[in-house]
Write a structure and sequence with these properties.
mainly alpha; MetI-like fold; Sugar_ABC_transporter; MetI-like_sf; transmembrane; MetI-like
Amino acid sequence: MWNDHLPIWFIAPMATVMVLITFFPGAYDLYLSLIKEPTLNVFAADFVGLSNFSTAFSRGGALHSLIITITVVVSALILESVLGFVLAALVAGVGSGRVKSFYRVLFIIPMAVAPVSLATIGRIMLNSEVGIIPYVINSATPFTAPAFLSKMPLLTVILMDTWNWTPFMFIIFYAGLSSVPDTLVEASRVDGAPLWRRYVHVIIPYMKPVVFVATLIRMIDLFRTFGVVYGLTQGGPGTATQLVSINIYEQMFVNNQVTVAAAIAVVYLIMVVALCNIVIAKVGFDGVWD
């Protein structure tokens, strides 16, 4: 009897910890979203129903920040996935082991930079007066460099995140490419398949589990983006780059609207969890590994 339930007993401690650190904060956040203002005595709180949710969407900018966040997530995810795969394919095609090692280290460097440092470097490099990027554009091309942070802040944020996190996709895709059996690739080459057909019909289908996991992890992480965007633009100019994470921060610490911030967080949590479940249900872990 004991042996039959032994795996459950081994899993139980960690499962209990995971429930406590995920369920309790989520339940408390839901509680905050339903009351007028937080109090030490939770039983004496003044419940207001869905009033905070109404405020969040009517005056809290929740819908706008959701649209901005989804735009950033979709755009950055596509760019990072494509660039990461292209870089991985190029490095995997290099014959020399030392050259491969050099490029692997080189491409990982951006991911090692702290978000605050990256934002600071980005602000300096993109500055219209002293930035190296506007200087190169103005001096080496016939075009005039735009004011990146004021005229095209959303695009700047997306490109900065792409530069920062493409190495993550590169690492995973490179590992996936390295796991593809040489016999499969060689067989397709012998059959006369051109390079693009080998990738479309042999390599990428074999890498489907890797692509799925990398995309899912990166999508979840993109929904959590805060540091780089806040350091670059602080959600501005205006609310042009106000992600949901920045909106929650400002509602709580700038506007002192704790319950409104909690309401936005509840909506955001439900949306992200639902989206991840839809992706998993449509693609499916079982279907990926079939």
